[in-house]
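Quick one - inputs below.
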Amino acid sequence: MKILHAYRSAPDATTKKLVEIVSEGRETESFDLNVANPDYSKLVDMIFAADQTICWW
Amino acid sequence: MAKSLGIFVSNPNQMRHVMGVTKAAVAKGSKVKVFFSWWGTKLTTTPEFPELCAIPNVDVSICADSYKQSGFDVNVVPKGLTPEKMATQAQHGAIIEDYECYLTL
Amino acid sequence: MSKKVCFISRHPDYVHDAMRSALGLAVENMYAYCTVLDATVPAFNDYHRENLEWIRDMEGEVYSNIDANVETNELVKISIEELGQKLREMDIIVPYGIVS
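Output:
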């Protein structure tokens, strides 16, 4: 199972802990939306390639 | 091969991401459905909202109850939307059941 | 097969609507769960208590890692570690709204 973790803001300790547990033993990728100019085309490709996308706060 | 994409919006500060992801997905040939709920319905007042509604292959709807709870008059349909798109949480269910990929913003 | 969905609210103003949204998915034949994380909510009114009961009637649950929510609103206590494990079972995870 391939999981994409996207972040709308910098993850705090709680989010990092949840990501760690959810990701254990699974293939994961991450994408940071909290930048001036996100590469949305790349994000969409990553969403299409993932089995599950979790967009954290 | 472009997959279909459903976007569930509950954060009132995410319009640039809604627009960016939707346009990028449509450019790849994707069918997109965007549903605004709770304070996400405040984004109906942004200049980008009617632009979003006008993009081909994009289905936009909002939660009418959330819209009312956010202080709007349900009889005033946001620019770009039609009355039948003032809907219920069943739209969220449709995103999950009928679309291949899911994103929450 | 019915999908499993979990809403996670980290802002008190989003808790009631997460429950309403969860209920909306439960009636669409999904397993719907909510977690109130790091946010304390006042005592539910009758409407919100009824929504909580409906979620449970439809085999969902509302959890919290905050003791006050467990005591005041009879939510089910969950730790961060337990929530992480529960999220691994979910088809859809909804970090809901904004953080306090």
